[in-house]
Amino acid sequence: MSSAMKLIRRFIVILFLSICLLFIFNVVLFFYLSYHQAGNQGGWKAAETISQSLLKDDRGSYRLSEKGAATLDEYQAWAILIDDRTGKVVWHSSNLPQEVPLAYSAADIARAVRGYICDYPTTTSGHGKDLLILGHPKTAYWKLMHNTFDYQTIASLPRHLLVFTICNLAAIFLIYMVAATGIFRSVKPILCGIEALPEGGNVYVKEKGLLSQLAASINRVSETLNMQKRQIRKKETARANWIAGVSHDIRTPLSMVMGYAGQLEEDQALEEPVRRKASAIRHQSEKIRNLVSDLNLASKLEYNMQPLKMAPVNMAALTRQVSADFMNMDIEDKYPISWNGSEEMNACFVLGDKDLLRRAFSNIIQNSINHNDGGCGIYITLSEKDGQCAILMEDDGIGVSNAQIEELNSSPHYMVCNDQISRQRHGLGLLIVKQIAAAHHGSVTIGRSTYGGFSLLLEFPICQENHNS
């Protein structure tokens, strides 16, 4: 609907600008034509010129100068001079038509001055006390002989023009609205259908009116999108079920392998090389078990199949617990963990699933361990900024290159299949961290630590009620 209203507003603005431009154009054109007509002054100026060019000699005869003759030729007119006392023509041009009379009464002169002589439109000028009449071709002018306007009409002319303009604008706007309403009825379902396409669901637009073909195209697009959505959902369900099934089927034989390998590792009757091999088998089996578990969890998070048990979680306490667990397992003290945080950060609460958050912290620490066989220091810093609880986890190990950092931050995750799948070999640990952060409306930023190694920054919205209490 917002698009439709925007379209209507644009049409109204275009209509208003069109009326303004049309009004300005008509005013300019009117003044141009009026100025052009007023500039030559028509036959009235010609009559004055002829009167001034008509000369009388000592014998009482009239003679037209060259300028007067040229004016007659220019206007293709004839001229007569009527005596004031007798009403007779005392002079006329050589091209006087035969039907033009040579004597005039007062009534004839009144009609001639006001309009026509034998259907020839006339213009007049005084020549002393006499009257000069200039006759023009019958198609030269059209004269109104009886047009009169009372004073009240002339005085009210501005008001009449304003009413005329308003009535015309109202009529134009009414016509536009009637036409636009019909178009809007045709456009509205199309716009609603287009706006509803990204939201999913079945979209159907009635295929009628001016835009019936466009409506049919939208319906076909909706059908195609729904079909693709069903196919994708079916593939996602099949993939999730397949991963869950494989994970379940692997657990039993893998448990047997780990059990037998553990027995062989602890059997003192076996030689030391054999026991070391059994130990290696057990360790690799544990990696496979963790990998299967990560794969199953990543699949559930990917398709929103992992139920979240949301509750306020103290991030300071949780990170300390995870750190203590890893330190207890690190018998050789190859991976010392340092926890940094002010006393104010002893209670930083986040609304989340405690088990999943624990899993995320464990994966980050385990990632540092996996990529630094010779050992490294791990540093955890907890801080608060702009309503976000920030957990910075760093190490001083071998680190990563700038290209790897860019790839880890921007490349598609492991679960997406594309042409670059062969290059995505970062494992599931960091993917699960990103998925857990996204499930808690948090963010993950990977970079280089201040200690020269790897760093990962987790940020989560703070649960204000528990935090304040």
What features would you describe in this structure?
It is a single chain. The protein starts with a helix and ends with a helix. The protein is rod-shaped and about 165 Å long. The chain has helices spanning 2-40, 42-53, 66-75, 106-114, 151-155, 157-196, 212-266, 272-302, 315-329, 354-370, 402-410, 429-439, 464-468, and strands at residues 54-56, 62-64, 78-82, 89-92, 116-117, 120-127, 130-135, 310-314, 337-340, 349-353, 378-385, 388-395, 443-448, 454-461. The protein is 55% helix and 16% strand. Residues 414-426 have low confidence and may be disordered. By secondary structure, it is an alpha+beta fold. Helix 6 (157-196) runs parallel beside helix 7 (212-266), helix 7 packs antiparallel against helix 8 and helix 8 (272-302) packs parallel to helix 12 (429-439).
Short précis:
This protein has 469 residues and is of the alpha+beta class. It contains 13 helices and 14 strands.
List the helices and strands and how they pair.
Blueprint: H1 2-40, H2 42-53, E1 54-56, E2 62-64, H3 66-75, E3 78-82, E4 89-92, H4 106-114, E5 116-117, E6 120-127, E7 130-135, H5 151-155, H6 157-196, H7 212-266, H8 272-302, E8 310-314, H9 315-329, E9 337-340, E10 349-353, H10 354-370, E11 378-385, E12 388-395, H11 402-410, H12 429-439, E13 443-448, E14 454-461, H13 464-468
Parallel strand pairs: 9-11
Antiparallel strand pairs: 1-2, 3-4, 3-7, 5-6, 6-7, 8-10, 11-12, 12-14, 13-14
Helix pairs in contact: 1-6, 2-3, 6-7, 7-8, 8-12, 9-10, 10-12
